Amino acid sequence: MSMSTSHIDDLVESEADTLIATLPAPVEDIDLNDPSLYLNRELTWLGFNSRVLHEAQDPRNPLLERVKFLAIVSNNLDEFYMKRIGGLKQQIAASVHTQSLDGRTPGQQLKECQSVVRTLQTEQRRIYIALMDELSDHDIQIVLCADLPVADRERLREHFRANIFPMLTPLAMDPAHPFPFISNLTLNLLVTLRYPGGNEIYMARVKVPVNKDVSRRLISIGDTQTYVTLEDLMVNNLDMLFPGMEFVSCALFRVTRNAIVEPDVEAATDLLEMIESELRERHFAPIVRLEIQPGMEPIHRGMLAAELGLNEEQDVIEVEGMMAMCDLFEIASIDIPELRDKPHRPVDHPLLANDRRNIFHIIRENGPILLQHPYQPFSTSVERFLRTAAEDPKVLAIKMTLYRTSGGAILDSLIEAAHNGKQVAVLVELKARFDEAANIGWARRLEGEGIHVNYGVMGLKTHSKLIFVVRRDYAQLRRYYHIGTGNYHPGTAKLYTDLGMLGCDEDIGQDLTELFNYLTGYSPPPSYRKLLVAPYNLKRAIIDKINREIEHHAHDGSGLIQMKMNALEDAEITRALYKAGRAGVQIDLIIRDTCRLRPGLPGISENAHVISIVGRFLEHARVMYFHNGGEDEYFIGSADMMGRNLDSRVEVHAPVEDLELRQELRLMLDVQFADTRTAWDMDSNGHYTQRVPEDEHARSSQETLISLAEKRLAAAVNHKEKKIRSRLLSHFQWRLHNKGLQ
Predict the structure, then answer these.
(1) Which one has a higher pLDDT value, 442 or 219?
(2) Cα 352 to Cα 380: distance, rounded to the nearest angstrom
(3) Residue 516 has pLDDT above 80, yes or no
(4) Are strands 452-454 and 226-229 parallel, antiparallel or unpaired?
(5) Half-sphere CA count of 476, side-chain side, radius 13 A
(6) Ranges 152-166, 182-196, 626-640, 717-731: which has the least confidence
(7) How far apart are CA 20 and CA 407, in angstroms?
(8) Mean pLDDT score, 721-733
(9) Per 3-state DSSP, what percentage of the chain is helix, strand, and coil (rounded to 5)?
């Protein structure tokens, strides 16, 4: 029996059945601008989260991994409110009535999104209760202070006195004390109290000081894996904060603020200052959601909604059970191997393993190298490439784009390169959502070390993943590069599936030279030899290649397009794919979350198939394949098929021309399309059904790719050992022959 998320998806696309019934007919007259052909961006993204939530209840996943998925959904929904709900609210406030591609106004989208989120959260709480029951069987539990033995309560009270109490600042709320500022995503206690024997009620807010370094949300009792929440500990020790007072009520609440704010362009003198201004404004941005504990007095609920400028009916959500389940990462990280996935240890790329030569020599002699993360380590490939560039005296210049990073080895290598007298230029994207503060810090640190720091082209985010190295090889300059699909972030390289290519192709090197000149200077956007670059030629090239498949299919029936991406949102690309589908071209898509296209529509997308893969790693790679009449074309790069990526960002896709590398990509795609363990099939209404393998021990595509990486390395090592043994044997026989002993 197949597993489905229809209980969520029915709400996600509640209008789909009606829309499909009203499709224009006959097929020849179909208008590809008809809203009924397109799914909603926000709702399909929420549908992705229902698939992630399914992983939290799937018994095939280890228990602590299921807790991790529960925390991921909570974190994702927080960001959804900050970005997407915040954006819709801004449009409504500005009286925007323009319909989306799928025919919904901002108000309609907001209403449907809020309905789906509530359903998701109801399901989330149900799964939470079930997981807590299972965790208790392994002596992992979250309990109430009031249910603990006296001795444990006394120890916790002493912990509160020593470690929590000094950080607390109760803020009164009365005519003499204005309503306090409430920080984004913080937990707060609304306390009502009175003097003994008095009738007048007083009100105070106390922030719950969750801090990963000082006061975690979950506090363990001794050396056990029994926990109490920080807010519960505070509630049970309020008498320290308000000595001698009587407590009438105490309720937990949490606010979510809009992350989309307009920076003060006129007040800022440069881009760095403008982004810093935006961060300050975001701290005080309008509130888009209020979460409250059930049982809060209606008068208090109404007061909070009014003070925070919210619609009590639409924007106030009662949260039963644990609020802010993202803190369950603390439980998910408990080190109990039998309750977690088998540890994954990446294996080196066969060409880089056990070869300590200069990596530029390896690239030059062997041709381009395709990297697959996290199956192959970031440290022995990308970090090695950059570290070697910093140390190699023949390297003259390093240029790089940084969208998100954690610093560490990446920044250390750039700084070392500058200290070694190399020309180093780094383009830091200051507008990377939620990483602005970190990127400002990295930019200032790099500038302080004498590195040329640039912030890109005005009006465009630079989302491309590029390292460009100029090296003197013999009597000429040679250009080396890394082009990737993921950020230069060692942490996410262990958790996200991404691709990268190391190479020294002359045409690509020339393209990168001109691209970086444009990014750091005032050169006009160039035409490119091989690279597809947004916002200049990438979208046009993709549409042209889709149209070329239509021509090939008309000629010999060979039309085939395969794409792997995070999201398909762009209207023009979706229309081009529909056009190809109507012409009979086979279209196979692996799309992680947002998808506008509806597969399986009669006469339109009967030959289109869409799958989504949800596994232990976040699918993040972007690949494009065009059959091209037998002259196969593969591209990897940084762009999803979204309007913002193709029209408002600097993105780079590079051709993969080497035969062996194309075979590796073909194998990866084939493995993922054949996945029966973690793949979900989308139907024409936008509903997803998870595939169920006939063999209960079937491996996921990610597990298969782990195994393939290990086998490639083992085969390479075995081949190398055989060559060494053969050389040694030949050398030994030669020596015997020379001595006249043979």
Answers:
(1) 219
(2) 8
(3) yes
(4) unpaired
(5) 4
(6) 717-731
(7) 49
(8) 57
(9) 45, 20, 35
pLDDT at 16 over 50: no
Residues labelled as active-site residues: 463
DSSP 166: G
Looking at this protein, which amino acid is placed at residue 96? V
Using only C-alpha atoms, the chain has a radius of gyration, in whole angstroms, of: 29
- φ, ψ at 155 (rounded to 5°): -65, -40
Q: Which residue has the higher pLDDT, 109 or 527?
A: 109
In total, the chain counts a number of residues equal to 742
- Give 531: exposed, middle or buried? Use CB within 10 Å, 0-12, 13-18, 19+: buried
What is the C-alpha to C-alpha distance for residues 272 and 279, in angstroms, rounded to an integer? 11
Q: Which pLDDT score, from 0 to 100, does residue 214 have?
A: 74
| Distance, CA of 440 to CA of 431 (rounded, Å) | 10
Q: How far apart are CA 55 and CA 569, in angstroms?
A: 25
CA atoms within 13 A on the CB side of 212: 5
Please answer whether residues 76 and 34 qualify as being in contact, where contact means their C-beta atoms are separated by less than 8 angstroms: no
Q: How far apart are CA 697 and CA 669, in angstroms?
A: 21
**Backbone phi and psi for residue 651, each to the nearest 5 degrees, phi listed first:** -125, 150
Secondary structure string (H, E, C) spanning 572-602: HHHHHHHHHHHCCCEEEEEECCCECECCCCC
Lowest mean pLDDT among 165-174, 524-533, 629-638, 726-735: 726-735
Distance (Å) of CA 260 to CA 175, 437, 441 = 32, 15, 21
Contact status, residue 628 vs residue 548, Cβ threshold 8 Å: yes
Give the pLDDT of residue 277.
Answer: 58
**Whole-model pTM?**
0.90
Mean pLDDT of all residues in 674-683: 97
Return d(Cα 432, Cα 404) in angstroms, integer: 7
What are the distances in angstroms from CA 253 to CA 188, 410, 494, 588?
5, 40, 35, 45
* Nearest in space to 560 (alpha carbons), one of 579, 581, 532, 534: 581
- What's the rounded Cα separation, in Å, for the pair 480 and 505? 8
- Which residue, chain included where needed, has tokens 């959260």? 121
Answer yes or no: are the C-beta atoms of 463 and 651 closer than 8 Å: yes
Secondary structure of 94-139 as H, E, C letters: CCCCCCCCCCCCHHHHHHHHHHHHHHHHHHHHHHHHHHHHHHHCCC
Q: Using CB atoms within 10 A of its CB, is residue 74 exposed (0-12), middle (13-18) or buried (19+)?
A: buried
Query: Which pair of tokens denotes residue 332?
Result: 């998910």
Is pLDDT at 263 greater than 50 in this prediction? no
Give the model confidence (pLDDT) of 316-344 as tens digits: 999 998 999 999 999 999 999 999 999 99
Rounded CA separation 630/624 (Å): 15
pLDDT at site 406: 81
In this model, does residue 674 exceed pLDDT 80? yes
Residue 211: Cβ-neighbour burial (10 angstroms; 0-12, 13-18, 19+): exposed
Distances (CA, A) of 679 to 123, 335, 699: 21, 28, 11
Name the 3-class secondary structure at 467: strand
Question: For residues 516 and 468, is the Cβ–Cβ distance under 8 A?
Answer: yes
pLDDT digits (tens, 9 = 90+) for 522-571: 776 778 999 999 999 999 999 999 999 999 999 999 999 999 999 999 99
Write the pLDDT tens digit of every residue in 86-105. 999 999 999 999 999 999 99
Q: Is residue 503 within 8 Å of residue 490, measured between CB atoms?
A: no
Residue whose C-alpha is closest to residue 501's, from 355, 384, 636, 620: 636
Torsion of CA 289, 290, 292, 294, to 10 degrees: -60
Q: How far apart are CA 142 and CA 144, in angstroms?
A: 7
29-79 per-position pLDDT tens digit: 789 999 999 999 999 999 999 999 999 999 999 999 999 999 999 999 999
3 state DSSP class of 454: strand
**Tokens at 276, concatenated:** 């810093």
For the record, the structure tokens of 726 come out as 């053969």
User: Pick from 43, 220, 156: which is nearest to 593 by CA?
Assistant: 43
